[in-house]
Please model this.
Amino acid sequence: MLPPCSLLNPASYYLRRPDVRIHYRRLGAGPPLLLLHGLGSCADDWFPVAPGLAAAFELILVDVRGHGHSSLASSRDYAIARMAEDVLAVMDALDIGRAHVLGLSLGGCVALQLAVSYPRRVDRLVLVNTFARLRNSGLATLRHRLSRLYACARDMDVLAEFVAASLFDDPEIRAFAAERLRRNDRGCIVRTMLAIARFNLLPHLQRVHHPALVLVGARDRTVPRECAWDMMARLPRAWLRVIPDAGHALPFDQPERFYDAVSRFLLGQDNTNTRASKLTPAPMSQPTTTSPR
Model:
């Protein structure tokens, strides 16, 4: 269960980079845990799970460039590698040598980039409804969706409604999400979408020896589940957990199950040094590789 704790407007901090000002928040005490949000989201959107995680970890909730309270990039560079460099700069500013990294969707791409480019700075990885590459096989649906998003991005109101409807079934949460999403800059969203489409770390995943938990929402309609299999087949020390009755916005859909899976993994309470199959539930078919090699 989520421990009793409240998130009461944690302090904001800013870090100036050559082409952008990065905003982040800090909350809790314990081993450092970076939380990296998805496209069009922001650090504040971790509120369903941040209070619970803050009971065991020092959370650093980063707004990636162009999102939330972070500024737009004067260079117009929204590559995943630049976002990873921004996160590394935050770690340096806080004198954090090594941290757990948790990323959702776009944030998961940034987490993987950190692990590949700066392996000594990452402890454990939690990869939520994300991918190392937009898969060719069976990817027509996702590419079609990206094309639609690119077209919709000409109007942020239309884009916000489309994305919110694809993420949430509940009308109230959908309206809240749409309002949050329409605050984003159209140019930033389009350029970030193009960066996502170009992103490919599959050839490098076998060098990522960090323990990694791959979390998948069983009802995720945004990222094809084959993307999780791609990561599981290549990450040497990866474990899979599928959360039932959860979509792409997993921390919103199932906050207690999300908290339980993440906290047990990061605290080493899931026997993750033995076999991945102990973490893999039945609802989804197994990938080719289900245990660390």
